[in-house]
Amino acid sequence: xxxxxxxxxISCNLSEGAALLDVESGTYYSVNSIGHAVWNFISTxxxxxxxxxxxxxxxxxxxxxxxxxxxxxxxxxxEKNNLIVVQRNRDNAKSKNAY
Length: 99
Hints:
The chain is of the alpha+beta class. The protein contains 3 helices and 6 strands; from the N terminus they run ββββαβααβ. The strands form 2 sheets. A 3-stranded antiparallel sheet has the order 5-1-6.
């Protein structure tokens, strides 16, 4: 699975995170500093779930399972709000949460 931001979403740095604006719908979302770090990381190039977990694990002092669980929740929220594109493997295409 690869994750990348939708091209119609732009971000703006805030003092403690970022604002994400879907220019098509006019809806904006705020993310905390960790959400902002994830957004910046996936914005550089399409990333696998494991690549993002590895990045967060190297940057933050947290248990790997907690990072995985929190990242799944964040990606679910991003996907539900059409902020990201999730390209799933053929094997995982039937499962909505195949992270």
